[in-house]
Amino acid sequence: MPTPKQMEKLAAKAARRPGPSTTAPDAPLPAEYWESVLKNPRADESGAEKRQRRLSEIQRHVLRISCRRCERTVEIQKADAVRLYGGNALWKDVAQRLLDNPTGPLEEIRIIAGESDQA
After folding, report:
1. How many Cα atoms sit within 13 Å of 35 on the Cβ side?
2. Which residues have CB under 8 Å from 105's CB, separation 6+?
3. Does the pTM exceed 0.85?
4. Where are the beta strands (DSSP E) in 67-116?
5. Residues 45-66: pLDDT tens digits?
6. Of 25, 27, 37, 114, which sits most exposed with the smallest number of CB within 10 A?
7. Looking at residue 44, what DSSP letter applies?
8. How far apart are CA 55 and CA 46, in angstroms?
9. Closest CA to 77 of 101, 94, 92
């Protein structure tokens, strides 16, 4: 526990520090914010463009797809997807295959991994 003198120093230091921005919530955002948003490489990519990417172009390690109709979600590691479908496969096609397969490819991967562990 700090002494009263230390507490006074901390309080004085906190009072000198600039506080959070006091701009109104409906105030326009600064130009620097919009510049950083527009410079983001993902800003130009629409959902359709994301679906047309090849697996080799995707940076994420875990790929996830979900069905809006049945709310089923399937995840697969990118390395496993590339091994099963190839690096040139379109993400849209791979996602459709993952959702069409009722058991999912993850069981297939587990079986393959289980067999190699026993050998």
Report:
1. 3
2. 74, 76, 80, 81, 84, 97, 98
3. no
4. 73-77
5. 666 677 788 888 888 888 888 8
6. 25
7. G
8. 17
9. 94
Q: Which tokens in the block code for residue 76?
A: 């697969």
The residues that bridge with 76 in the sheet, in sequence order, are 63
CA–CA separation, 76 vs 62, rounded Å?
Answer: 6
Cβ contacts of 92-96, under 8 Å, gap ≥ 24: 92/51, 92/52, 94/55, 94/63, 95/51, 95/63, 95/65
Residue of 81, 83, 100, 106 lying closest to 91 (CA atoms): 81
Distance separating alpha carbons of residues 30 and 92, to the nearest angstrom: 37
